[in-house]
Design goal:
Layout (H helix, E strand, L loop, with lengths): L2 E8 L3 E6 L9 H12 L15 H5 L20 H9 L4 H20 L1
Antiparallel strand pairs: 1-2
Helix pairs in contact: 3-4
InterPro entries: BrnA_antitoxin
Pfam families: BrnA_antitoxin (PF14384)
């Protein structure tokens, strides 16, 4: 099964799920029809009355990843010295940049598969 609880309920009413991004469940015919109807809907027909408008001021203080934090796993990886030197040469945060590069490639590969 592609989406399955990984076990324990954490912190009261939160349950952790592991998702196999390469093996997502197929959309049902009802979901496909709903997606098609939404895609065909003109922007003017969308009701935004239940959300506030997003101003330029909002975007100046917006923070990415504020609510979603993927779990991290510590590992040992052998990387070519010149690649590591390049990553470190860009300044602090080389591990974060390495993770971003790997995530971008992972998502591109998953997109090609799907």
């Amino acid at each position: 099964m592609p989406i399955a609880p990984s076990g324990d309920v954490t912190n009261g009413n939160r349950v952790r799920f592991d998702v196999d991004l390469a093996n997502l469940p197929p959309l049902t015919e009802a979901h496909k029809a709903e997606c098609d109807a939404l895609a065909a809907m003109p922007d003017a027909a969308i009701d935004y009355s239940d959300i506030p408008p997003l101003t330029e001021e909002f975007w100046t203080s917006a923070a990415r990843g504020q609510f979603f934090r993927p779990t991290k796993t510590s590992t040992t990886v052998r990387i070519d010295s010149d690649v590591l030197a390049w990553l470190r040469g860009e300044g602090r945060g080389y591990q974060t940049r390495l993770n971003a590069i790997l995530r971008r490639e992972m998502l591109a590969a998953l997109k090609k598969q799907g």
